[in-house]
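Running this now, will post back.
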Amino acid sequence: MKRYFIIILFFLSACSTGVSLKKVPFGPIFHDNGSKVWMIDEVITNGKNYAPIENTDKDVIVFYDSGVCMFQPMKSLGEIQGRKGEYSIYSEEGSLSIFFKNERWDFTIKSINDSRMELIPLKKSTFKYSLVLIPFPEI
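Update: finished.
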């Protein structure tokens, strides 16, 4: 039994020794190489979630691959243009900056995948809430 354990350990260590891993760019997760609508599922400060319970009352952010984003209430989608801004993703640092006319929202990307994103505000950010974003749900 010990012998098998040592052999397995040898193969596992041989497979990962000296291999450097590249960070995956976050951009395609944000915009799917086009545009992607993310719903703001949670708005958190001091451990309390202030986001509305009903999805129809929540806000959305649309990220475009051009670096433009649109922030607006879900109820007004298709009726009025939302608040237009620009964004920059810094995959190496794990951060996101969103620039509106007189505001700059700066976040650390705590976790990210294609179905959930957790953003924590940086001290320099004018927006002081943590956000949890999820892809726009089916209606």
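The beta strands are 35-45, 48-49, 59-64, 68-73, 83-90, 95-99, 104-113, 116-121, 130-135. More later if anyone needs it.
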